[in-house]
Specification:
Distance between the termini: 13 Å
Structural class: mainly beta
Radius of gyration: 24 Å
Length: about 525
């Protein structure tokens, strides 16, 4: 994953987005000179990827916080359900991650001494912790407070009529105690969806930063403050303090909002937030993680001072000379280890009844089980996040289908009703390669190639499948080491975007096998997957 080590002095340049691909709702904390960042994962598993950095510019994924079935109950759910808006915090030797599982159990906390894991099983907060997007705040006296969002308790007057509230959390029992109180309803009159709240104590004030306006074109960051926690907060006169809503849908970065503040050891401040990079006014990666400088004026934060929008690059001063590992955007994954790479995600869970790394060491064996990717729930799919609009994904697979129902190949996945499949299968006794668009729940075969006509004499060849995507169009190839053939081209990828498919996620692309509802004991052996961006 690393491609070179470089010495840096005085300054390092962060390139936005700092996390490319579907990494929304970022939350960050600093422990000494180390930064840790988490993002939403919805129904993908493992859940809540966690990243580490020493300079805010170069990030390494060190694990996934929810990596066991006991922590992540999201099976048989639509891909945009599951885990919403995690917050990571550190207090007296313990890391805390709090989030919402909207599919099961609501708001919960997990803890760890090592951020790379293992993390505890969930402490569910129960029916008292209504709403979504919880955060934790540790005051100077060590007491901990829950901060979250909930529907207007006096009765929801319109869609998005919610409020932000706080209550003390007993760290011994992991239960809320004392009284709860609403402290803010948003900066704009008739505000919709005040969400993603975080509380900080800075220079005697309690600051409440949150998002409002929804996650689309009107998304924004606003802030309020108070000298007491249990008191109605005062809004900043410049609210919203950050948004791209005024820049229009033709701007190269849209939907900016949902921020979390962090300082460095020298007193410089930054905010991480989500935003999207559209292509042809469509967003394939969903919402990504960006960073901006922050200063303080009149005891209020100013994000991207003098600029007012997210920049392509952000210069970050360093306190010392250091060597850093620069990380490639390319993902090349082989299967020589005893466990799956942390970057590979499944739908609902990475189910070991669907795959094996042991039966044929050195390859990933996906079984052609009944489950199929068109249905809600877990299927034999393992993928990587799409990180740009110009990329190629390649895999090599040995697969001999025994019936017309058995398939294996590559899938570009937005959700179960909107995805693109490139699969080896059989039709009337012929070995074929089929490209299928699945849009709004409907299959359409756009290419069928009799691949044995390519002059392949090997009984069980290693098939190379390649998908090349550029500017929201794809071409798909299949072949062997000796020969490759383009089977389809100029396939529109617009149906697999947030704007067309809806939801909160971006695309993943990966390996897939299925018997499409039939009984089967067959399998496909994948040698690698390589995503070049």
């Amino acid at each position: 994953m690393y491609y070179r080590k470089r010495e840096v002095r005085d300054m390092v340049t962060a390139k936005n987005p700092i996390l490319s691909g579907f990494y929304p709702d970022p939350s960050i904390c600093r422990v000494g000179a180390d930064y840790y960042l988490v993002t939403s994962s919805f129904v993908y598993a493992p859940g809540v990827p966690i990243f580490h950095s020493r300079d805010l510019a170069h990030w390494e994924q060190i694990g996934n916080i929810l990596d066991r079935p006991s922590q992540l109950c999201v099976e048989n759910e639509e891909i945009s359900r599951g885990i919403f808006a995690p917050t990571i915090r550190y207090h007296e030797g313990t890391f805390y991650m709090i989030t919402t599982n909207v599919s099961h159990g609501g708001n919960f906390i997990v803890t760890a001494q090592d951020p790379a894991g293992p993390w505890s099983d969930p402490y569910y907060l129960g029916e008292e912790a209504v709403g979504i997007d919880p955060s934790l705040f540790f005051d100077d006296d060590g007491r901990c407070y829950y901060c979250g969002t909930r529907p207007n308790p006096e009765g929801v007057r319109y869609n998005g009529d919610w409020e932000i509230w706080i209550q003390e959390l007993d760290l011994g029992t992991m239960k809320l105690k004392g009284r709860s109180m609403a402290i803010w309803k948003g900066a704009v009159k008739g505000c919709i969806w005040p969400e993603g709240p975080h509380i900080y104590k800075i220079n005697g004030y309690y600051y409440l930063m949150h998002a409002e306006g929804g996650t689309g074109p009107e998304h924004s960051i606003t802030i309020a403050r108070s000298t007491e926690l249990f008191k109605w907060f005062e809004g900043c006169p410049r609210n919203p303090i950050f948004t791209h809503r005024n820049l229009g849908m033709d701007y190269p970065v849209i939907y900016a909002g949902h921020g979390d503040l962090v300082d460095d050891i020298n007193g410089n401040w930054y905010v991480v937030m989500l935003a999207s990079r559209p292509c042809k006014k469509h967003s394939s990666m969903g919402r990504e993680t960006f960073i901006a400088k922050t200063i303080w004026e009149n005891e209020w934060p100013v994000i991207a001072p003098g600029i007012g929008h997210l920049e392509d690059t952000v210069d970050i001063p360093l306190e010392e000379c250091r060597f850093i590992d620069e990380i490639s955007e390319n993902d090349f994954i082989t299967f020589c280890e005893a466990k799956l790479d942390k970057r590979l995600v499944g739908i609902g869970k990475r189910n070991e009844s669907f795959y094996s790394l042991k039966e044929n060491p050195g390859v990933l064996r996906l079984y052609t089980n009944k489950e199929q990717i068109t249905d809600l729930g877990t299927s034999a799919f393992l993928g990587l996040r799409q990180k740009g609009y110009e990329f190629s994904v390649k895999t090599a697979v040995r697969f001999i289908p025994q019936s017309d129902n058995e398939t294996a190949g590559l899938v570009l996945f937005q959700n179960n009703e909107n995805h693109l499949r490139a699969e080896i299968t059989m039709e009337a006794g012929r070995l074929v390669f089929v490209v299928t668009t699945h849009i709004k729940g409907t299959d359409k075969k756009i290419a069928v190639a009799d691949i044995m006509e390519y002059g392949i004499t090997e009984k069980n060849p290693l098939w190379n499948i390649c998908m090349i995507c550029k500017e929201q169009e794809a071409s798909i190839w299949i072949g062997t080491a000796e020969k490759s053939v383009k089977v389809a081209e100029k396939i529109s990828l617009l149906p697999y975007t947030t704007e067309e498919a809806g939801g909160f996620v971006g695309c993943t692309v990966g390996m897939y096998a299925s018997s499409n509802g039939s009984n089967s004991d067959n399998y496909a052996d994948f040698s690698y997957i390589m995503l070049t961006q």
